[in-house]
Please model this.
Amino acid sequence: MKKYPFNTSQDLVDGVIETLFENPALKRFFLDHDLSHDDIENDLNLYMTFAREQPLCLDCEGLDYCRQDTLGYQPDLTFEGGRARLAYKACNFLRDARQKEQAQSRLKALYMPQMILAARLDDFHMKTDARQALYKRIMAIVNQAKLGEPIKGLYITGPYQIGKTYALGALANALAQLGRKVIIAYYPDLVREIKSSLRTGELEPIVRQLKTADALLLDDIGGEAPSAWIRDEILGPVLQHRLLDAKPTFFSSNLPMKELANAFIDTDQQADKIKAYRMIERMKALADEIILK
Model:
Protein backbone atom coordinates (compact mmCIF):
# COMPACT_ATOMS: atom_id res chain seq x y z
CA MET A 1 0.00 0.00 0.00
CA LYS A 2 1.35 3.40 -0.97
CA LYS A 3 1.68 6.18 1.61
CA TYR A 4 -0.97 8.91 1.58
CA PRO A 5 -1.60 11.84 3.92
CA PHE A 6 -4.54 10.00 5.42
CA ASN A 7 -5.35 6.53 6.74
CA THR A 8 -6.92 4.78 3.83
CA SER A 9 -7.85 1.57 2.13
CA GLN A 10 -7.62 0.58 -1.49
CA ASP A 11 -11.34 1.13 -1.85
CA LEU A 12 -10.95 4.71 -0.66
CA VAL A 13 -8.02 5.25 -3.05
CA ASP A 14 -10.16 3.94 -5.90
CA GLY A 15 -12.91 6.34 -4.89
CA VAL A 16 -10.51 9.28 -4.87
CA ILE A 17 -9.29 8.39 -8.37
CA GLU A 18 -12.85 8.13 -9.58
CA THR A 19 -13.51 11.60 -8.17
CA LEU A 20 -10.46 12.98 -9.96
CA PHE A 21 -12.04 12.02 -13.27
CA GLU A 22 -14.80 14.53 -12.51
CA ASN A 23 -12.27 17.33 -13.01
CA PRO A 24 -12.34 18.05 -16.79
CA ALA A 25 -8.69 19.13 -16.89
CA LEU A 26 -7.50 16.00 -15.08
CA LYS A 27 -9.70 13.72 -17.14
CA ARG A 28 -8.24 15.18 -20.33
CA PHE A 29 -4.71 14.82 -18.89
CA PHE A 30 -5.28 11.16 -18.02
CA LEU A 31 -6.69 10.37 -21.46
CA ASP A 32 -4.08 12.37 -23.38
CA HIS A 33 -1.24 10.46 -21.71
CA ASP A 34 -3.08 7.11 -21.60
CA LEU A 35 -2.57 6.76 -17.85
CA SER A 36 -3.61 3.55 -16.14
CA HIS A 37 -5.16 3.26 -12.70
CA ASP A 38 -1.74 2.39 -11.25
CA ASP A 39 -0.11 5.32 -13.06
CA ILE A 40 -2.60 7.70 -11.47
CA GLU A 41 -2.16 6.10 -8.06
CA ASN A 42 1.62 6.58 -8.28
CA ASP A 43 1.12 10.37 -8.37
CA LEU A 44 -2.12 10.56 -6.45
CA ASN A 45 -0.96 13.27 -4.02
CA LEU A 46 0.05 15.44 -6.96
CA TYR A 47 -3.30 15.03 -8.69
CA MET A 48 -5.19 15.70 -5.48
CA THR A 49 -3.26 18.96 -5.06
CA PHE A 50 -4.08 19.98 -8.62
CA ALA A 51 -7.75 19.07 -8.14
CA ARG A 52 -7.88 21.29 -5.04
CA GLU A 53 -6.05 24.30 -6.49
CA GLN A 54 -6.99 24.40 -10.19
CA PRO A 55 -10.70 25.22 -9.65
CA LEU A 56 -9.69 28.30 -7.63
CA CYS A 57 -8.56 29.92 -10.89
CA LEU A 58 -11.79 29.24 -12.78
CA ASP A 59 -13.84 32.39 -13.43
CA CYS A 60 -11.25 34.50 -11.61
CA GLU A 61 -11.82 38.23 -12.16
CA GLY A 62 -8.29 39.45 -11.45
CA LEU A 63 -5.38 39.54 -9.04
CA ASP A 64 -7.49 41.34 -6.44
CA TYR A 65 -9.67 38.23 -6.29
CA CYS A 66 -6.90 35.59 -6.41
CA ARG A 67 -7.51 32.70 -4.00
CA GLN A 68 -4.24 30.86 -4.50
CA ASP A 69 -1.69 30.69 -1.69
CA THR A 70 0.85 32.39 -3.97
CA LEU A 71 -0.77 35.39 -5.59
CA GLY A 72 -1.09 35.11 -9.36
CA TYR A 73 0.29 31.59 -9.78
CA GLN A 74 -1.80 28.73 -11.09
CA PRO A 75 -1.03 24.98 -11.04
CA ASP A 76 0.23 23.49 -14.29
CA LEU A 77 0.45 19.78 -15.05
CA THR A 78 3.10 18.38 -17.39
CA PHE A 79 4.20 14.84 -18.23
CA GLU A 80 7.91 14.07 -18.44
CA GLY A 81 9.82 10.80 -18.34
CA GLY A 82 6.70 8.76 -17.76
CA ARG A 83 5.68 10.75 -14.66
CA ALA A 84 3.44 13.72 -14.00
CA ARG A 85 4.99 16.98 -12.84
CA LEU A 86 3.19 19.77 -11.03
CA ALA A 87 4.58 23.27 -11.43
CA TYR A 88 3.21 26.76 -10.94
CA LYS A 89 3.14 29.43 -13.62
CA ALA A 90 2.05 33.04 -13.65
CA CYS A 91 -1.56 33.48 -14.69
CA ASN A 92 -2.69 35.86 -17.43
CA PHE A 93 -3.59 38.53 -14.89
CA LEU A 94 -0.13 38.42 -13.30
CA ARG A 95 1.61 38.46 -16.69
CA ASP A 96 -0.46 41.47 -17.75
CA ALA A 97 0.38 43.26 -14.51
CA ARG A 98 4.09 42.58 -15.03
CA GLN A 99 3.96 43.83 -18.61
CA LYS A 100 2.29 47.03 -17.44
CA GLU A 101 4.93 47.51 -14.75
CA GLN A 102 7.67 47.03 -17.32
CA ALA A 103 5.96 49.47 -19.68
CA GLN A 104 5.61 52.02 -16.88
CA SER A 105 9.33 51.73 -16.18
CA ARG A 106 9.96 52.68 -19.82
CA LEU A 107 7.51 55.60 -19.70
CA LYS A 108 8.72 58.78 -18.04
CA ALA A 109 5.87 61.22 -17.47
CA LEU A 110 7.20 64.66 -16.54
CA TYR A 111 4.82 67.11 -14.87
CA MET A 112 1.79 65.23 -16.24
CA PRO A 113 -1.47 64.40 -14.42
CA GLN A 114 -1.72 60.92 -12.93
CA MET A 115 -4.45 59.94 -15.39
CA ILE A 116 -1.87 59.92 -18.18
CA LEU A 117 -0.33 56.77 -16.69
CA ALA A 118 -3.70 55.05 -17.13
CA ALA A 119 -4.55 56.44 -20.59
CA ARG A 120 -5.31 53.64 -23.04
CA LEU A 121 -6.29 53.54 -26.69
CA ASP A 122 -9.07 51.11 -25.72
CA ASP A 123 -10.73 53.99 -23.88
CA PHE A 124 -10.25 56.53 -26.66
CA HIS A 125 -13.55 58.27 -27.43
CA MET A 126 -14.37 58.69 -31.11
CA LYS A 127 -17.32 61.07 -30.94
CA THR A 128 -16.35 63.14 -33.98
CA ASP A 129 -14.91 62.50 -37.42
CA ALA A 130 -11.73 64.31 -36.39
CA ARG A 131 -11.24 62.05 -33.37
CA GLN A 132 -11.88 58.97 -35.50
CA ALA A 133 -9.25 60.16 -37.95
CA LEU A 134 -6.82 60.79 -35.10
CA TYR A 135 -7.43 57.33 -33.67
CA LYS A 136 -6.77 55.71 -37.06
CA ARG A 137 -3.57 57.68 -37.41
CA ILE A 138 -2.40 56.72 -33.92
CA MET A 139 -3.15 53.04 -34.58
CA ALA A 140 -1.18 53.26 -37.82
CA ILE A 141 1.76 54.67 -35.86
CA VAL A 142 1.52 51.84 -33.30
CA ASN A 143 1.48 49.26 -36.10
CA GLN A 144 4.48 50.92 -37.75
CA ALA A 145 6.30 50.76 -34.41
CA LYS A 146 5.52 47.04 -34.13
CA LEU A 147 7.07 46.48 -37.56
CA GLY A 148 10.05 48.69 -36.83
CA GLU A 149 9.15 51.07 -39.66
CA PRO A 150 10.04 54.80 -39.70
CA ILE A 151 7.44 56.95 -37.95
CA LYS A 152 6.47 60.55 -38.51
CA GLY A 153 5.05 62.28 -35.47
CA LEU A 154 1.85 64.24 -34.97
CA TYR A 155 1.08 67.82 -34.04
CA ILE A 156 -2.37 67.67 -32.43
CA THR A 157 -4.07 71.03 -32.12
CA GLY A 158 -7.46 72.21 -30.95
CA PRO A 159 -9.18 74.06 -28.09
CA TYR A 160 -9.01 73.22 -24.39
CA GLN A 161 -10.64 70.08 -22.99
CA ILE A 162 -10.95 68.28 -26.30
CA GLY A 163 -8.74 65.30 -25.47
CA LYS A 164 -5.34 66.23 -26.89
CA THR A 165 -3.46 65.34 -23.71
CA TYR A 166 -5.29 62.03 -23.33
CA ALA A 167 -4.49 61.14 -26.93
CA LEU A 168 -0.79 61.76 -26.31
CA GLY A 169 -0.94 59.76 -23.08
CA ALA A 170 -2.63 56.78 -24.74
CA LEU A 171 -0.07 56.85 -27.54
CA ALA A 172 2.80 57.11 -25.03
CA ASN A 173 1.56 54.06 -23.14
CA ALA A 174 1.06 52.08 -26.35
CA LEU A 175 4.64 52.79 -27.46
CA ALA A 176 5.99 51.94 -24.01
CA GLN A 177 4.15 48.61 -24.17
CA LEU A 178 6.15 47.87 -27.33
CA GLY A 179 9.40 48.32 -25.44
CA ARG A 180 10.15 51.91 -26.45
CA LYS A 181 11.68 54.34 -23.97
CA VAL A 182 9.17 57.17 -23.95
CA ILE A 183 9.15 60.65 -22.45
CA ILE A 184 5.90 62.60 -22.25
CA ALA A 185 6.10 66.04 -20.69
CA TYR A 186 3.86 69.01 -20.00
CA TYR A 187 5.93 71.53 -21.92
CA PRO A 188 5.35 74.74 -19.88
CA ASP A 189 6.49 72.98 -16.69
CA LEU A 190 9.36 71.36 -18.54
CA VAL A 191 10.56 74.82 -19.59
CA ARG A 192 10.45 76.00 -15.97
CA GLU A 193 12.40 72.93 -14.88
CA ILE A 194 15.03 73.52 -17.55
CA LYS A 195 15.49 77.11 -16.43
CA SER A 196 15.86 75.96 -12.82
CA SER A 197 18.38 73.30 -13.82
CA LEU A 198 20.87 76.03 -14.75
CA ARG A 199 21.40 76.57 -11.03
CA THR A 200 21.52 72.89 -10.11
CA GLY A 201 23.79 71.70 -12.92
CA GLU A 202 21.20 69.22 -14.21
CA LEU A 203 20.58 70.83 -17.59
CA GLU A 204 22.67 68.51 -19.74
CA PRO A 205 21.12 65.25 -18.44
CA ILE A 206 17.62 66.66 -19.12
CA VAL A 207 18.51 67.75 -22.64
CA ARG A 208 20.23 64.44 -23.34
CA GLN A 209 17.10 62.52 -22.34
CA LEU A 210 14.93 64.69 -24.58
CA LYS A 211 17.28 64.12 -27.51
CA THR A 212 17.67 60.38 -27.16
CA ALA A 213 14.26 59.09 -26.01
CA ASP A 214 12.80 56.58 -28.47
CA ALA A 215 9.66 58.71 -28.53
CA LEU A 216 9.18 62.25 -27.21
CA LEU A 217 5.74 63.74 -26.62
CA LEU A 218 5.43 67.42 -25.67
CA ASP A 219 2.05 68.52 -24.37
CA ASP A 220 0.77 72.10 -24.65
CA ILE A 221 3.69 73.54 -26.56
CA GLY A 222 3.14 77.24 -27.09
CA GLY A 223 1.57 77.57 -23.64
CA GLU A 224 4.84 78.72 -22.08
CA ALA A 225 6.18 82.28 -21.82
CA PRO A 226 8.30 83.21 -24.88
CA SER A 227 12.04 82.68 -24.38
CA ALA A 228 14.61 83.04 -27.11
CA TRP A 229 17.09 81.05 -25.01
CA ILE A 230 14.74 78.07 -24.64
CA ARG A 231 13.90 78.25 -28.35
CA ASP A 232 17.45 78.54 -29.67
CA GLU A 233 19.52 76.68 -27.08
CA ILE A 234 17.17 73.91 -25.92
CA LEU A 235 14.17 73.18 -28.11
CA GLY A 236 15.91 73.87 -31.40
CA PRO A 237 18.87 71.54 -30.77
CA VAL A 238 16.59 68.85 -29.31
CA LEU A 239 14.31 68.87 -32.37
CA GLN A 240 17.24 69.05 -34.78
CA HIS A 241 18.88 66.05 -33.12
CA ARG A 242 15.64 64.07 -33.25
CA LEU A 243 15.07 65.06 -36.87
CA LEU A 244 18.52 63.86 -37.92
CA ASP A 245 18.14 60.61 -35.96
CA ALA A 246 14.57 60.06 -37.24
CA LYS A 247 13.21 59.71 -33.71
CA PRO A 248 9.40 60.04 -33.44
CA THR A 249 8.32 63.33 -31.88
CA PHE A 250 4.77 64.37 -31.03
CA PHE A 251 3.20 67.62 -29.91
CA SER A 252 -0.10 69.00 -28.69
CA SER A 253 -1.03 72.66 -28.67
CA ASN A 254 -3.99 74.99 -28.45
CA LEU A 255 -2.45 76.86 -31.38
CA PRO A 256 -2.44 75.75 -35.02
CA MET A 257 1.10 75.33 -36.24
CA LYS A 258 0.91 78.47 -38.40
CA GLU A 259 0.11 80.52 -35.25
CA LEU A 260 2.70 78.81 -33.07
CA ALA A 261 5.50 80.84 -34.67
CA ASN A 262 4.16 83.96 -32.95
CA ALA A 263 4.46 82.21 -29.58
CA PHE A 264 8.15 81.59 -30.30
CA ILE A 265 8.88 85.24 -31.15
CA ASP A 266 10.58 87.00 -28.24
CA THR A 267 11.31 90.41 -29.78
CA ASP A 268 10.26 92.49 -32.78
CA GLN A 269 13.61 92.01 -34.48
CA GLN A 270 13.55 90.37 -37.91
CA ALA A 271 16.26 87.88 -36.95
CA ASP A 272 14.17 86.75 -34.01
CA LYS A 273 11.16 86.16 -36.27
CA ILE A 274 13.27 84.16 -38.71
CA LYS A 275 14.46 81.88 -35.90
CA ALA A 276 10.88 81.34 -34.81
CA TYR A 277 9.78 80.33 -38.29
CA ARG A 278 12.78 78.02 -38.66
CA MET A 279 11.58 76.26 -35.53
CA ILE A 280 8.21 75.70 -37.16
CA GLU A 281 9.91 74.22 -40.21
CA ARG A 282 11.66 71.69 -37.99
CA MET A 283 8.35 70.78 -36.38
CA LYS A 284 6.68 70.37 -39.78
CA ALA A 285 9.45 67.98 -40.78
CA LEU A 286 8.92 65.99 -37.59
CA ALA A 287 5.13 65.93 -37.36
CA ASP A 288 1.94 66.11 -39.40
CA GLU A 289 -0.70 68.49 -38.10
CA ILE A 290 -4.08 67.13 -37.04
CA ILE A 291 -6.80 69.59 -36.02
CA LEU A 292 -9.42 68.55 -33.48
CA LYS A 293 -12.64 70.53 -33.39
